[in-house]
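quick one
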Amino acid sequence: MSIFKRFNTKRTGKSMSMSGDYEILMALSTDIGCRRANNEDSIQYFSLPGDRQTGLAIVADGMGGHKAGEVASKEAVDTIGAYCLAKNFVNPKQTLTQAYREANCRIHQLASDNIDCHGMGTTATALLFAEGIACFAHVGDSRLYRISDDKIEQLTRDHTFVAQLLERGMITEEQARSHPNKNILTSALGTHADVEIDVSEQLLRVRIGDKFLLCSDGLFDVVTDEQIKTMVLENKPDDACDALIDAALAAGGHDNISVIVLAIEQNK
Ligand code: CA
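structure w/ calcium ion:
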């Protein structure tokens, strides 16, 4: 799995339109950071050839010893992507839910069959576009943000012990940021035979001017929401990816950093 040792890629979608009036610009990038020996994040964008109305962005952040985290995150991305492609991205909620269940089973089975992979797991945050709507699914502490109308909203809920304390009012936002247990996940793909999956309660209607960011915690642990908002709003997706990664590295880059930026623009 050494192919992930220094993996840094970027692609910009040309014209993946939601309908005749829209197009999605997409760029993605991942960086090992400054302190880690491996990049345990996996990211990918899937689309149907010749179909400009669909696409699926996924960020997964793996965990486990002996490079098992890399195995888990790659398995999640590959399985979820392949499942959605096989279903032609129809019925987004059901398709994403089933894709996540399949990924959970496969990772859990791999972990059971291979002693080096025991206990491995991964986060997975996915955003699917089809026919003018968007739908997301999520497990773990990677995040999906929507940036529009000059505001940034976190659409996913972190599945962490610290997020639970925060939701119950037992700690403050400030305490959450520096909490010693902030990396303890309450849910992950592959660690158990069953998994609780968050799927968008409502399908999101995609609007021109909307921007979306999927990212691993290597970004938002060290870069504030306000900084993220500015960098995404002021740049095209490929430049935004560069700016976000550079900001995380400049802040210490203690973890792997992965970002996918999507912008909904008027079809030209
Ligand atoms: Ca991480």
